[in-house]
């Protein structure tokens, strides 16, 4: 695979929110929990973990918040026009961004999950690739 040239540009579905990923993600996680299935309207969601300094985001964002089963607060930022979830953050750890809009990047070669979490709630037809870390719940 060819090396990715950073920064990589991207945008939400309607183009009102733009982002620039300036460095490789620290981690790429596929989450199979029921909440992520609802969020993604699919079998799982992809979360790309990045440092706050490694991503620039411009455009108006709206916010939603919920408390996870772990007790952590999860603040979600999304485009008010198209509704695309852009990122999530735990206010207790604001330097770690859970970037949800990686599919909107112009180059997505770096978006390969190395870890699958909440596999206890995954859809029965989903097969986790051999050799990839998996956890029945959040690690």
List the helices and strands and how they pair.
Layout: E1 8-11, E2 18-21, E3 27-31, H1 34-40, E4 45-51, E5 55-58, E6 62-67, E7 73-78, E8 85-89, E9 96-99, E10 115-117, E11 133-135
Parallel strand pairs: 3-10, 10-11
Antiparallel strand pairs: 1-2, 2-5, 3-4, 4-9, 6-7, 7-8, 8-9
Mean pLDDT: 92
Number of helices in the DSSP assignment: 1
Helical content band:
under 10%
Low-confidence stretches: none
Largest sheet: 8 strands, mixed
Query: What global shape is seen?
Result: globular
Query: What structural class do you assign from the helix and strand content?
Result: mainly beta
Q: What number of domains? A: 1
Q: Which CATH class is shown?
A: Mainly Beta
Give the second-level CATH assignment, the architecture: Beta Complex
> How much is the radius of gyration in Å?
15 Å
State the separation between the terminal residues, measured CA to CA.
29 Å
Looking across the biggest beta sheet, what order are the strands in? Answer: 6-7-8-9-4-3-10-11
Number of strands: 11
Order of helices and strands: EEEHEEEEEEEE
Return the CATH topology: Metal Binding Protein, Guanine Nucleotide Exchange Factor, Chain A
Work out the strand percent. Answer: 35-45%
Description:
The chain is globular and about 35 Å long. The N and C termini lie far apart (about 30 Å). It has one domain (about 10-120): Metal Binding Protein, Guanine Nucleotide Exchange Factor, Chain A. The protein has one helix spanning about 35-40, and strands spanning about 10, 20, 25-30, 45-50, 55-60, 60-65, 75-80, 85-90, 95-100, 115, 135. With about 140 residues, it is mainly β. An eight-stranded mixed β-sheet has the order 6-7-8-9-4-3-10-11. A three-stranded antiparallel β-sheet has the order 1-2-5, with no helix packed on it. The chain contains one helix and eleven strands, in the order βββαββββββββ. A hairpin with a 6-residue loop joins β1 (about 10) and β2. The mean pLDDT is about 90.
